[in-house]
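FAQ: What does a ligand-bound record look like?

Like this one, built around NAP:
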Amino acid sequence: MAGHQLIAIGSYFEWDREAMSSEYALHEVPNADAALDLPAELRAQVRAIAFKGHTPFGEKHMESLPALGLIANYGVGFDAIDIATASMRNIKVSNTPDVLNDDVADLAVALLLAQSRKLIEGSTWVRSGEWPNKGELPLNRKASGRRAGIVGLGRIGREIADRLAAFKMAIHYHSRKPKDTPPSWTYHADPVSMARDVDYLFIALVGGKETAGYVSKEVIEALGPDGLLINISRGSTIDEPALLEALENGTIRGAGLDVFNNEPNIDPRFLKLDNVVLQPHQGSGTIETRKAMGKLQRDNLAAFFAGDELITPVN
Ligand code: NAP
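The answer part, i.e. the structure of the complex:
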């Protein structure tokens, strides 16, 4: 234990805790509101926090830390943090981009394969001991060689598209502007027109207010009855009630979802559906990547305290 005071908000792995406490006087709290209860003398001294989790960190939290200069976020998605207020108060925010792209893209492809090839049902088929009685698993659907559309060709979206190209798929994408891509990829200015032209829709947008409901009822309807929707971004990017309705009515064939509104207390209607594969927001959840995320968070903290440029600034 040494050095600057550091509040770590959220639940950290032992390797992160050890690394942070070897550099800083570490004060761990489970969530942002719990930081409000720390002694006022401590809060007055704190210049940086390590932030982890999805519960909001807003004005009242920033006000309670008058010397705050950095919120070092663990994760690439920073939608829990009120960036506009942070910027107004001259508080820098950093995140952990790129180091998690592979894992999240891998999970997106895994969700497509699990959904098309019925991997969860196949596993249950064998484990239940019913294989000798029931015989062959009912036929499922070919995954390769079809048309995939990516909503949001950012860092993770691009990794998803590159993987799907290796599955012999025609790649379509929607971003706010065309990107530098292989010439065979098709750009769509309108997500509805793209959804109409593809079999699979992958959502890789940032979360937050600006993209809330971006994948609208119209986009979902345009995907059509043979379409699969895969979401690894945030629950908020999709009109979730419209998605539930489409899945219940078979307006689309199915979905693979790692993210939801109101996690972990997701809408119970999802649990009744047999045309969705559900994951507990585990896109970046490998030991390798979580270690890399923790290290990048700490590297940003170290840069801040050294007075250097942040490595991965957000604002
Ligand atoms: P990124 O490189 O910043 O890409 C984000 C995409 O969102 C870009 O394509 C961007 O569009 C689009 N976008 C941003 N603001 C928009 C707006 N106002 N309207 C329309 N589109 C907008 O981010 P990334 O590193 O790929 O990460 C994407 C998201 O994945 C993260 O923000 C996070 O929420 C999520 N994520 C989930 C997990 C998980 O565990 N499931 C793990 C990591 C990340 P343009 O292409 O037009 O710029």
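Follow-up question: can I read anything off the structure? Yes, for example: The pocket of NAP is lined by residues 76-77, 97, 100, 104, 152-157, 175-177, 204-207, 210-211, 232-234, 258-259, 281, 283-284 (CB under 6 Å).
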